[in-house]
Amino acid sequence: MYLVTPDPAHGLVVAPRSSDDLTPETEQTLTAQGFIWNNEIEAYTRPTDHDPEDVERTADALRELGHYVIS
Length: 71
Description:
This protein is of the alpha+beta class. The protein has helices at residues 24-32, 52-64, and strands spanning 2-7, 11-16, 36-38, 43-46, 69-70. Strands 3-4-2-1-5 form a five-stranded mixed β-sheet, covered by helices on one side. A hairpin with a 4-residue loop joins strand 3 and strand 4. It starts with a strand and ends with a strand.
């Protein structure tokens, strides 16, 4: 399960519920979209984004990989 949300301090945040959600395919998809892992908050972030359309586009990509997503 993932939370996809805009955050004023971090941009667009994609947070897995647990490390079990970090499949190689999911990590590859997120990094290809420009996300980087942020150890401080234990989530992927893309600092320049926080548009609702970006949230939905990212959530849809995760759903296509079979993940449950809250956005």
